[in-house]
Amino acid sequence: MAPTANARRIGIHLSTSGGTWTAVQRAVDCGADCFQIFSSSPRQWKPSPVSEADAERMRIGLAAHAIAPLVIHASYLLNLCSQSESVRENSTKAFRNEVERALALGADYLVLHPGSWKGITRPEALRLAAENIERAIDGLGCQDSSLRILIENSAGSEFSMGGTLDQIADLLHLLDRCAPVDVCLDTCHTHVAGYDIITPEGYEGTARLIADSFGTQRVRVWHCNDAKASQGSKLDRHQHVGEGTLGAAAFRRLLHDSRFAHAAFIAETPVDEPGDVLRNVNTLRALAAL
Length: 290
Known about the structure:
Elements: E1 9-13, H1 23-30, E2 34-37, H2 52-64, E3 70-73, H3 85-105, E4 109-112, H4 122-137, E5 148-152, H5 165-175, E6 181-186, H6 187-192, H7 200-213, E7 219-223, E8 226-227, E9 238-239, H8 248-255, E10 264-267, H9 276-289
Parallel strand pairs: 1-2, 1-10, 2-3, 3-4, 4-5, 5-6, 6-7, 7-10
Antiparallel strand pairs: 8-9
Helix pairs in contact: 3-4, 4-5
C-alpha cells in the first residue's frame, strides 16, 4: 500500500505468541500500519505448516485494519551458500517451508539472509545461493503471486553474503531470471558494515551507491535499527531508534528521502522493558512527521 503525501508505512517486528495472526492486534495496539514476524521459531529446522484457520484470521485482520505490507523474516539457521552440502540441503528445504508459509499467510515480503561463504570463493557462493533459492521456490508459483523475496544486507563480516551492496547486486543479477527478488536494507547493518549514513554528505553518497548498485526502487523494506557499535565495526548490535551511534537525525533524513517513499520502515529494536515496542514506533512516527 503506497503512502500518500509525506506519510510513511511504519512498523516493528512483533511477537506471534498465541498464533501468527495475533500479531495483527499487537500492531494495532502500537500504532503500526505494517509489521514483521517470524512465521515459526527462527531456530527450528522443521516447523509445522500454517493452518488454514490461522491463515484466514491473518488475512481478515490485515484487511480489516488496512495493515500492509506483511513482512516475514526467514529463519536464522539458513545458510544457502555454505561450504557444507548437508547444511545447504537442510537450508534449501527449510527455505522452501518458509516460502510456503509466507504464501499461505498472504505475506508481501520474505526477508532472507543468504548465509556465509567461509571456505569457498565468492563467485561459488553467489552461484550456490542463487541455485538453492531457485530450487527452494520451484513449483510454488511465486512468480504468479504477490510475494517477493528480499535479500537483506549483513553487518559486513568477511564471509557473510550481503556484507556489501555490490554482493547484493550480483545476487539479484543471478536471480532476476527465476525468482521475484528485491532488497531489504538494515540501517544498523549498513552503518557497521562501513557505509556512512550519518553525515548529510555520507548519506547522499551511500544513497547514490544504492541507486547505482540495484536502484532505490528495489529497496522494499528498511529495517530501522539504531546501533550500539561504531561505523565499520562489523558488530550487529541493535539499539533503540535515536539512542545509538546512528542518532535520530540519520533516521529523520532516511524517512524524509523521497527516493524511499515507497518502502516500509520496520524497527527490529530491543524489547528491554514494557512499552519499548510502542516507544520505538512512536519515535519513528515523530521523526517522519518533523
